[in-house]
Amino acid sequence: MAISGLVWTLVVTHPLAQPLTTCTCLDGATRVAPPFCAPWLAVSAAATSPAVADAAPAPTPRPSVAQEVERLMTEMTAAYSKVRDYTAILHKRERVKGKLLPTEEMAVKFRKPYSVYIKWVGEVNKGQETIYVRGANDGKLRAHRGSFPTTTIDLKPNSGIAMTNNRHPVTEASLGFVIDLITKNLDRGQRDPRGPLVLTDAGESTRFGQRVRCIDAVFPGADYYGKRARVCVFVESRLLSRIQIWDQADRLIEDYEYEKLRTNVGLSARDFDSANPSYNF
């Protein structure tokens, strides 16, 4: 008989304190005196144990933070590729010429390929409006201050007046531009031989009633857009929720957060026309 095919029982001469006396095969054909029982029992138990016969599969390793970042960035890019237009409240704070400016709140409309309307709705610059349509108005934006004097003017996007208290021109005001900037810097950081790009999962939280997932990144060199960044993504839509960037002196230089982001709402040319009666140009 093969040992692996046996099931063994212990026969004890006294139920309380007597030593083990024999090993007996269930069919009663084999009786063996100690100390030979122990190895036979060990071999038989190993052959018939459910833990060995039906061993559970090894757990799947959890993805690394780098793999999670790559997945989130891929999903964010894919989600934006399906966006034709969007509306949102943009909370914007920037450091310009060394000074951290107050947070601005802006109602934004955007339509691909590149038409943008912005109205300041918070206390800072309240009532100000800007429209820019790529390829229209001789490449200029149209704007008014929303307060006296209320004259509407056309400006080149990179002109001194248009860039007052701004780190970026209106040509870089889209969600797509920010996503592209983020993904390029993270991708470059992961491939940088100077390494490492330090990534930390900052977990989930709720912002303006929506769940967001955040990742912190510290870049390996001074030639990146910033020293470190926090990128947050809406859990449901996978679109960008917030981006914060710090400079090499670890000062916050940019903070953009989207509230009430709605996509593919059916914006038309009328939404980017300064003659729209609901605007104040």
Number-wise, the strands total 15
Provide the helix percentage. Answer: 10-25%
Low-confidence stretches: 1-53
Tell me the radius of gyration.
33 Å
- Bin the strand percentage: 25-35%
Briefly note the structural class of the backbone: alpha+beta
**Strand/helix succession:** EEEHHHEEEEEEEHEEEEE
Quick one: biggest sheet?
A: 12 strands, antiparallel
The dominant shape is: globular
Termini, distance in Å?
98 Å
- Report the average pLDDT across residues: 85
Total helices: the number is 4
General description of the model:
By secondary structure, the chain is an alpha+beta fold. It has four helices and 15 strands. Strands 4, 5, 6, 7, 8, 9, 10, 11, 12, 13, 14 and 15 form a twelve-stranded antiparallel beta sheet that branches. The protein has a three-stranded antiparallel beta sheet with strand order 1-2-3, with helices on one face. The chain is globular, with a radius of gyration of 33 Å. It starts with 7 loop residues before the first strand and ends in an 18-residue tail after the last strand. The relative contact order is 0.14.
Sum this structure up briefly.
The chain is of the alpha+beta class and 281 residues long. The chain is built from 4 helices and 15 strands.
List keywords for this structure.
281 residues; three-stranded antiparallel sheet; twelve-stranded antiparallel sheet; alpha+beta; 15 strands; 4 helices
Helix-strand blueprint:
Elements: E1 8-12, E2 20-25, E3 31-32, H1 37-48, H2 50-53, H3 65-81, E4 85-96, E5 99-100, E6 104-111, E7 115-120, E8 129-133, E9 141-144, E10 153-155, H4 175-191, E11 198-207, E12 210-218, E13 228-234, E14 240-246, E15 252-263
Antiparallel strand pairs: 1-2, 2-3, 4-5, 4-6, 4-15, 6-7, 7-8, 8-9, 9-10, 11-12, 12-13, 13-14, 14-15
Helix pairs in contact: 3-4
